[in-house]
Amino acid sequence: MSDWDIDVLGGSALEFDFLELAPAKRFSDAFCDDFYQEVPNDWWVIVTDVVSSTKAIEAGRYKDINMLGAAGITAVFNVVGGATIPFVFGGDGATFLCSYKDCPELISELLAVKAFGLQHYDLELRVGCVPMHEIRAQGKNVQVARLELSPGNSLALFNGGGLGLADSIIKADHTGNYCKNENTDKLPNLEGLSCRWQPLKPVNGQILTLLVQAEVEEDYARIVEGIQEILGRGNDDLNPVKPQGMKLRGFFENFSLERFAASAGSGESIVPALKLLLERCFQRFAHLVNLKSGPYQPDTYLTELRSNSDFRKFDDMVRMVLDCQNSVIGELKEYLKAEHEAGKLIYGIHLSEEALMTCLMLDLRHSQHLHFIDGADGGYAMAAKSLKAQAKVKISNS
What is the DSSP letter of 60? Predict the structure, then answer.
């Protein structure tokens, strides 16, 4: 019997439907146990990330890394029929939860994304999976909540420490049991993946990418309240997505990638290219004159785009990409430093002059679209570098 078929401790008897979870409406609900539900024991954690992403970022390839990370999410959603399973975007990859029945097909599709990444970007996407029963056997857990950004658009919130353990297991594996390396000639279905907007410029000062991992879960609400109180002084709009300042990229930027995405995994190029040309012409004209045609209404779409951005999230750590005033960033650093020295948390900060946005168009007719935000020049990956350095010091001193 393979791990795919294992049903331990009656895990499959536990009803779990991500979209049926009672929705959290505010980010502060991420720290309220009432919204979380146990993940069944026969489910799996899937993790993807770009290998040696720090080196690629140093070479200026952070946008390529974001796109490959988002490509994995797109491919998974095209298999399961939209954003129906829990996931989180991490900048250079993503994490998903899925049933044991779906896991083999999703891994197969993600291995196709890995092959695509090597061919299209010369970047390697690590793909791995760990069963929930293994995570619990090693003393960690995964609980999930649903944060509703707008009707039909949700992000997952995670606690329990299991995602970090799964990531460590996959990265340490050389057997192929957890880290998957099978070769494939299959083309991934990336339909819906888009990147048509220029980098987002800050209005308040700088783009702050922040990671915070508390020593104990009970501290998160207090810590985040302290962060928001500092950053919110004189500024109540930390969201880096501001429709009034958004501009479309050059007409042919990322054309090759979107043409491939439009082929929906078929590899066909002529018809998708023509369709993409027409779409881009229409979008530019529509935004120029605020033309409302069918499901695409520029003003409505931009308002929804802002609401549907993942600039704040929680997956065993707080992740934020914020438009911050320079005057309060120093105060924030002092606050985090004091909390770190008191043993309450570890953190990573990265400052940049812009944020990047990668878009996933699910069903525009029903206003279903998600937008993944990261700081420029490495954003989450560079903030994680600082956080991991603090974690190593903490371990060596313990």
Answer: T
Give residue-wise pLDDT tens across range 146-157. Answer: 999 999 999 999
- Dihedral pair phi/psi, residue 241, rounded to 5°: -90, 105
pLDDT at 291: 63
Into how many domains does the chain fold? 2
Domain finish residue from 283, 298, 313: 298
118 and 255 co-located in one domain: no
113 and 133 together in one domain: yes
- Domain end, chosen from 298, 314, 342, is at 298
What gap in Å lies between CA 44 and CA 67, rounded to an integer? 24
Q: Specify if 321 maps to a domain.
A: yes
Q: How far apart are the first and last CA of the chain?
A: 41
Q: Which domain holds residue 108?
A: 15-244+302-397
Instruction: Note the pLDDT tens digit of each residue in 182-234.
Output: 999 999 999 999 888 899 999 999 999 999 999 999 999 999 999 999 998 86
Q: What phi and psi, each to the nearest 5 degrees, are found at residue 263?
A: -75, -10
Q: Give the other-Cβ count within 10 Å of 94's Cβ.
A: 23
| Rounded Cα gap, residues 361 and 194, in angstroms | 7
- pLDDT exceeds 70 at position 14: no
How, if at all, do strands 312-314 and 318-325 pair?
antiparallel
Backbone angles phi, psi at 251, to 5 degrees: -55, -40
Pick the closest to residue 248 from 275, 284, 285, 279 (CA basis): 284
DSSP codes, 244-266: GG--BPPTTTTHHHHHHHHTTTS
Q: Does the pTM of the predicted model rise above 0.85?
A: yes
- 191 in the same domain as 270: no
Residue 183, class by beta-carbon neighbours within 10 Å (0-12 exposed, 13-18 middle, 19+ buried)? exposed
Residue 6 lies in a domain: no
The dihedral through the CA atoms of 324, 327, 332, 337 has a sign that is positive
